[in-house]
Design a protein that fits this description.
With about 475 residues, the chain is mainly alpha-helical. Among the domains are: about 45 residues, no CATH class; about 220 residues, no CATH class; about 55 residues. The protein is about 55% helix and about 5% strand. The strands form 3 sheets. A two-stranded antiparallel sheet has the order 1-2. Helix 13 packs across helix 16.
Length: about 475
């Protein structure tokens, strides 16, 4: 048998071309809004959009987030989509410029990707609606920026507003550790809080024990005696303490950007005063009715006793290799609050440290009075009249340490059954679901490949049969 190739059947060729060029789409868009051709273009274009947020469907990325309720999942999804939108706008803006952009991998390109644009930025400033600024500096400029920042914090840089001096909104918004407690002078503006979030601090006599235990809650291992000696000298610890609790210096920074008459000092009543006095002062300054708000909400920031603080400090020395998120979950946000419920002996302030705190208080009161800030309350309330007494956290009784440690162990043993184990179970289930989905996709791809092979073989047999009939 000798096959011959005759002329093509134009009718059958047209039918086959029509069949293969047919693309079925189901849509709710009316024909008057988009033609069939325009609709097909829109559909084909969405693949380029889907690539922008394909990472959101990656189980390795999604598994790194833990959110407690669906509302937070929706909020996070919205934030991530906004990130993708900003990323795309940045890429589009750069591509609209005529000049090619130098890139590391491809050299000068006219249409760079967003990942190629970001390394070329010297610095990125994100301004939030509340006027907060977030700064990201390129790695090449990071050493220079860190040096400038160090000079600024050490006082070597000129004051804010001076020519050549950087302005730091972060410095204006900085508050003490544990901000939110009902302590200390608090500057606010009549048209809202001046400079941003509230900053609450106390007189130095009450602040020294509180500041040390806050450092301990944040993984520090410094002893109480070392802390008291360091903060009274010219040391990094002293500069750190002043940057957080030097009220005249903080208000001087604010007054460089906010009129002095809009910076108010609300003093904390002395120990023994009625619980509602401080709230009434705040409410009166803000122009709200204090009776319309509840004040019986229990505080979440429990103070550690001397023995409990000693247990956490010793534990910190053994957990130097633990990752920060794990430490925060287990110690800072769970063990420390649980130990704070024990209500052990307060932390003692030695006589020499108390005398130094009184000197600091008198200097602060004089500086605040000279600056002329409006005061709600009495500046004399900032001068301590009674030394904080209690126990020495560097030398607690062994029996008390053992009791506190056992109580902490009991709390940690009970905690996984309620929170950590449930969280881990959810993570395992999420990984299992992701693995099952990947397996289903792999099986589907295998089935599609098999179907294509079978269809290809069938088409080949059909073509061979048609060629044989044409040859006969």
């Amino acid at each position: 048998m000798r096959p011959r190739i005759a002329g093509l059947d134009e009718l059958r060729l047209a039918e086959e071309r029509q069949r293969r060029s047919t693309f079925v789409l189901i849509t709710t868009v009316p024909p008057a809004q988009l033609s069939a051709h325009a609709l097909l273009l829109e559909y084909k274009h969405q693949s380029s959009l889907e690539r922008r947020f394909a990472f959101l469907q990656d189980p390795e990325v999604v598994d790194s987030f833990f959110l407690k309720n669906p509302e937070r999942v929706q909020a996070l999804g919205y934030v991530l989509l906004m990130v993708c939108l900003i990323f795309r706008v940045l890429e589009r803006r750069v591509r609209q410029t005529a000049a090619p952009l130098p890139t590391i991998a491809r050299g000068p390109v006219v249409h760079p990707t967003g990942l190629e644009v970001l390394p070329g930025l010297a610095a990125t400033v994100i301004r939030l609606p509340d006027a907060t600024r977030l700064l990201s500096v390129a790695p090449a400029l990071r050493p220079t920026f860190d040096a400038l920042l160090q000079r600024w914090r050490s006082g070597a840089a000129p004051r804010p507003g001076h020519p050549g001096a950087p302005r730091s909104d972060a410095a204006l918004r900085k508050g003490p550790p544990g901000a939110g407690r009902r302590h200390g002078p608090h500057p606010v503006g009549r048209a809202g809080v001046a400079g941003g979030a509230p900053r609450l601090t106390t007189g130095m006599a009450r602040q020294l024990p509180a500041a040390w235990q806050e450092w301990i809650k944040n993984r520090d291992t410094i002893t109480y005696r070392e802390f008291l000696a360091a903060v009274r000298g010219d040391t990094p610890q002293a500069r750190r303490l002043r940057s957080l609790h030097d009220v005249p210096a903080i208000l001087a920074t604010w007054s460089a950007h906010v009129p002095t008459e809009r910076v108010h000092v609300v003093t904390v009543p002395p120990p023994g005063a009625a619980p509602g006095v401080l709230w009434q002062r705040f409410a009166g300054l803000l122009g709200v009715d204090p009776a319309r708000y509840r004040t019986d909400i229990p505080g979440a920031n429990s103070s550690l006793g001397a023995t409990e603080a000693a247990v956490v400090r010793r534990l910190n020395a053994l957990l130097s290799g633990v990752e920060q998120p794990r430490y925060d979950r287990a110690v800072k946000f769970y063990l420390a609050p649980e130990l704070g419920k024990r209500r052990g002996a307060r932390i003692d302030l030695p006589e020499d440290a108390y005398d130094w705190a009184i000197e600091q208080a008198h200097a602060a009161v004089a500086a605040l009075a000279e600056a002329g800030y409006p005061v709600v309350g009495d500046l004399a309330e900032l001068i301590p009249t009674q030394r904080p007494s209690g126990a020495d956290p560097d030398d607690p009784p062994a029996a008390e340490v053992a009791d506190a440690a056992i109580a902490g162990l009991a709390a940690l043993v009970q905690q996984p059954a309620t929170e950590a184990s449930q969280r881990e179970l959810r993570r395992v289930r999420a990984r299992l679901a992701a693995a099952e989905e990947q397996l289903a996709r792999a099986e589907a791809r295998t089935l599609r490949r098999r179907a294509r092979r079978v269809a290809g073989a069938a088409r080949a047999r059909v073509r061979a049969g048609m060629a044989g009939r044409i040859g006969r």
